[in-house]
Structure formats: structure tokens, C-alpha cells
Design goal:
The complex is a heterodimer of chains A (153) and B (171).
Chain A: E1 13-17, E2 21-25, H1 27-39, E3 44-48, E4 53-55, E5 71-74, E6 78-89, E7 95-107, E8 110-116, E9 129-134, E10 147-152
Antiparallel strand pairs in A: 3-4, 3-5, 6-7, 6-9, 7-8, 9-10
Chain B: H1 15-19, E1 25-29, E2 33-37, H2 39-50, E3 54-59, E4 64-66, E5 82-86, E6 89-95, E7 98-100, E8 106-118, E9 126-131, E10 144-149, E11 162-167
Antiparallel strand pairs in B: 3-4, 3-5, 6-8, 6-10, 7-8, 8-9, 10-11
The chains are: A mainly beta (153), B mainly beta (171).
Chain lengths: 153, 171
């Protein structure tokens, strides 16, 4: 005889939740980068005079020569689309009526990944110049989502 | 700090700095909901805890009674043959005085987790639980303890249906 028959009243599964939270600080360069977005509505980068590379988002150290970067440059709010994709499915897996457009937008020698807006999907093309649309200043919290989306410039 | 390093590089932050908005940060909460299939053995164990009984299971080959109950013997890998209701008394096998909670808060009065060998199970077979109603200095290995249960209507089928084990005096 074996114990194959389970008590029908017995619980089938033990349910719980892992309380995992985190708080990410952006670091020295990231702090200044996001602070400028929040307070002034500008996208900043750092320039390495040795390698002539402009890092966007701003970095504290050059990835190539490991030199310290303290030359801050305003790269403007207009960049060009390097690559893009259409999202037809929302985060929870439900289908979207209108696709969301996510693009990599070049600034300096780097760039940002963000949404495109005020544009029809068939108008998007590589090389399109796009401009950042910021939230109103009172609603900015110091996050990349303080930029609502990029629209054709 | 070590003898060589008096101060580590970097900027230390206090809770107040976050509150005052001196530092920008991103807060995130992971979706950590899970459901763990209890199976036949542990499912019956949790159901019987709700009824106020600690359940074990018997291996006909090793003639051992283990707690919590399992359907397959861990020693000989043969199927176990029956569930055995055990007593809610036992003996402290080992214990610890814990001055830090699970989320790393310092506490003055220690929590006392202990492994308790349950009466009715084979020797050295027990469950891990908390000790209560006891002076931390007087906890000893070999101490006799008894379970303090939640009121029946509050039990949900969890090992926390036993609040803690308290010492008993035996004649």
C-alpha cells in the first residue's frame, strides 16, 4: 500500500509573494544627466577630448581610454532614428490596437531608446530626424519617461 | 574599516537624502507572486495542521516515522505506507538566539528558532519552529516543549498555525 490518495480537503498549492523591491540611483554622471532633463529639459552628454567621442547618456569615464570625463555638452533635443520596431503586444500580453513604436535615436556618438509619437507607422524610416517632447516641468520626476516621446522634427 | 583603509571611496546616502530629493532614483517592485504545488505529503500535512494535528508518515521497510510526511522514504526510496498522527510535544534538538529579523532589523529580545524532535516520530526527526514563553538564557538542548496553537477558526493550513513551542514541566 502506498500513499497515493490525497486528502481532498488538502491545499493544492502554497501561495505567496516574494517582497522584492529595489531603489536604483543613477550614479554621478547619471544624476546630472537626469537632473538636467528634470530641471532644464535638455539632453546632456560628456565629451572625451582624447578620443573625440561624445557619450549620450552621459558617462563619468571614457570606455575607450578610461579617462575621466568632465566636459559636459548639450547635444540638443533633435536626433536621428538609427533603428526602430513596432510593438503590437502590450506588457501583459494583450494585443494593441495601434502599434507602439520604439526607436534608437542617435545623439552624439551614443543615443537613447525611446517611443516615437505624433507619427503614423508607415511614415517611420531610418534617418528620420526626431525631436524630444517633454512632460510639463511640474510632472517631471527625473526619469527617462520625463520625455513623453520623440516626434518628427 | 580596516587598518589601511580609514574611509571607503564613494558617497554614502541616508534615508533623509532620498526623502529631501537630494538624489534621483528609480523605485521598482518585482512581481514575485508564486504558487508551490504541495503534493500529496505536504498537502496532507498542511490540512492536518489546520485540524490541529502534526502528521508524520511511516516507512514499512525502514520502520521509521518521519515528519513532515513524505510519500517516498528518503532513506530507502520505497513508497511509504501510511500517515501517522503525532503528538504536539517534543524535545529541542538544536536552537539559535537570533537578534536580527528576516529583513535585517536589529531586535533587543531574540527570536529563538529551534529544531524540535516531535514525540511519536523516530529519534532525530523533527520540524523547525520558534520557541516562546521562555527566557532565552534558559533554553537548553533536550528541553521538553509543547506546541501553542492558534484558535481553530484562525488556522489556515500553514506551519504558522502553530504559534510557537513553549516549555513544559514533566512529572
Amino acid at each position: 500500500m502506498t500513499l497515493l490518495h490525497k486528502d481532498p480537503q488538502a491545499p493544492v498549492a502554497w501561495q505567496g509573494e516574494l517582497p522584492v523591491t529595489n531603489r536604483y540611483t543613477y550614479g554621478l554622471a547619471g544624476e546630472k544627466f537626469f537632473r538636467t532633463i528634470k530641471d532644464e529639459g535638455h539632453i546632456m552628454g560628456t565629451h572625451c577630448p582624447n578620443c573625440d567621442i561624445t557619450y549620450v547618456p552621459a558617462a563619468s569615464f571614457c570606455e575607450r581610454c578610461l579617462g575621466k570625463l568632465d566636459e559636459w555638452v548639450d547635444v540638443g533635443n533633435i536626433g536621428d532614428v538609427v533603428t526602430y520596431t513596432f510593438l503590437n503586444v502590450a506588457l501583459d500580453g494583450s494585443p494593441l490596437e495601434k502599434p507602439e513604436i520604439v526607436a534608437f535615436i542617435r545623439f552624439g556618438d551614443g543615443g537613447l531608446i525611446h517611443y516615437l509619437g505624433e507619427i503614423e507607422p508607415d511614415q517611420v524610416e531610418i534617418g528620420l530626424m526626431v525631436e524630444a517632447v517633454f512632460k510639463p516641468k511640474s510632472k517631471r520626476v527625473g526619469s527617462i519617461l520625463d520625455i513623453k516621446y520623440f516626434k518628427p522634427a | 574599516m580596516t587598518a589601511k583603509i580609514k574611509e571607503f571611496p564613494g558617497i554614502s546616502l541616508s534615508e533623509q537624502d532620498f526623502k529631501d530629493g537630494k538624489i534621483l532614483f528609480n523605485f521598482d517592485k518585482l512581481n514575485g507572486i508564486y504558487a508551490w504545488d504541495t503534493g500529496v505529503g505536504i498537502g496532507s500535512y498542511l490540512a492536518s495542521l489546520k485540524a490541529g494535528v502534526i502528521l508524520g508518515s511511516h516507512c514499512p521497510s525502514c520502520r521509521k516515522i518521519v515528519v513532515p510526511p513524505r510519500t517516498i522514504c528518503e532513506f530507502c526510496f520505497r513508497p511509504m505506507d501510511e500517515f501517522v498522527p503525532l503528538k504536539d510535544t517534543g524535545t529541542v534538538n538544536t536552537f539559535s538566539l537570533c537578534y536580527v529579523t528576516w529583513d535585517v532589523q536589529r531586535i533587543k529580545e531574540p527570536e529563538i528558532p529551534a529544531v524540535i524532535d516531535i514525540d511519536g516520530a523516530s529519534p532525530l526527526h523533527g520540524i523547525m519552529h520558534m520557541l516562546g514563553e521562555v527566557d532565552p538564557k534558559k533554553v537548553k538542548i533536550g528541553m521538553r516543549v509543547k506546541a501553542v496553537w492558534k484558535p481553530p477558526e484562525e488556522r489556515v493550513g500553514s506551519v504558522n498555525d502553530i504559534l510557537y513551542f513553549k516549555p513544559i514541566k514533566e512529572a
